[in-house]
Amino acid sequence: MTIMIDTGNYIAAKAAVMARPAVVPAYPITPQTTLVEGIANYVKTGEFKGEYICVESEHSAMCACIGASAAGVRTFTGTSSHGLLLMHEMLHWAALARLPIVMCNINRTVGPGWNIWPDENDSISQRDTGWIQFYCSSNQEIFDTVIQAFKLAENEKVLLPVMINYNAFILSHTSMPVEIPKQKEIDDFLSKYKPRWKLDVDNPITFGNIILPADYEKIRKDMQNSSENAKKLIPEIAKEWKKIFGRYHGDLIEKYRCDGAEYILLAMGAIGAESKVAIDNLRKEGLKVGLARVRTFRPFPKEEILKLGKQADLIVIDRNISVGSEGALFSEVKAALYDKSDAKVYGFIAGLGGKDVPYTDIEKICKKSINGKAKDCEWYNLEGV
Amino acid sequence: MSSQELVEIVFHGRGGQGSVTAANLFVTAALKDGNKGVQAFPFFGAERRGAPVRAFARISGDEIHLRSEIYTPDIVIVLDESIMGIVDVLKGLRKDGTILINTTKKPEDFDFSKKYNVATVDATGIALKHDILVGGIPVVNTPILGAVPKILNRVTLKSIQTVIKNKWKGEGGEINVKAAQDAYEEVEVNF
What we know:
The complex is a heterodimer. Chain A is of the alpha/beta class.
């Protein structure tokens, strides 16, 4: 084990290369650029022995991932914001074709107005593509999740692609110390990918052919079953990782000081880390507040959230907005509780377009909820609209 | 300052002067000196050569959960004195905070030396003396880091010199190490 101090993007590049993918097709976009630069540099140093393909767009990047993965090899890519949106059609394709592609998406605001700063509308709008979605809050979690994601995606009970999301700049360009295991340890943890089927000229099969209505529904139900399987596997893999490497970032959610909490704050990504500082301060003031950092938005941890809703009232911060409705996490949390819990749920929109969300604001959001002064779905700290 | 407390630092410089590299080298040295939690990040956004830029660093005895900007730094480091007329470098500096400036002036020459701890070092002069130039411009980030152990006991000159040597191998590293040493010896403080 060595300690590497580097940015989220370079850490993700390191993790991706240590997972030994055979193919990495990528197209650069701010703020993902240094991730693919990092991988390109490992081509130069010889540490990455796979095929690095410079493609002409993100749509092509995902097409190349699909081709490579269908040919039976481990495949990785990274993108951000408009790049992810350009991939949209192929994201559905990758998931329905049951290809265990792993991709980092650096959460960046969608334009116009043109904005390179963090918010989560890019990945939230890919919610229904069938991809498993993780949201990370530290560079160590990025490293560990990239490795774990291959194990999860390639499990025969899952076979779904995995998107690892982390906030633009706040993680992608911030240096933090990260424990890097030895290559041998990663190789032992992540056995060689053995595809169940593949494109093979010596053994031709039809791939993605027309399918009639009665059978198509079975495909969708099978994806849903596999996503449920992922819910069980994510904690198992996290437990195995903890046993070997001593690090643990939570299962589908990470609970922080929830014991005896009468209010539990739910947040994703970097706000989920900053919230720990707010929770510590609120606890010092005697307020019984805990944190549940949602790590996977898909599969959605509805059973865990229902448990929280039976214990406490819930406060939700969304760094996204489903225009015409409300924050996506807020909606899903309420749906998880429907008819089974009397908990009050308060929703806040904060940090869109990269607006900073410091712990002092998170404390105010919690206090406003506790004091019963929060509106149904409130835009926090927004003036003049 | 106790060995566990969070310390927040803002670097002010101009694009191309290496403020971000300074922040990265600083936290790498701080980790070596036993500060388990460290973080370094640039101002988030587009940067232009020559324009005023900021970089940030945090060190702590524990893991750092903060992900927000630094609003109330404990230490401000100014790599280019000329930006002090256009950027309020003292903004948010804590009451007991320290400002380290690359200048030929003495700490007492600054009005705010009555209110804050002020440290001064001629990092540009040191860079010129050692002929540390990139594109004809003196590199001030390595010399100024040498002055930091004099104002903050959480990081040692030895670790700063080690990380400089690790980043620039050979002769290039050696002259930067000497520049850091000079800054350490020449820095003047009003406290």
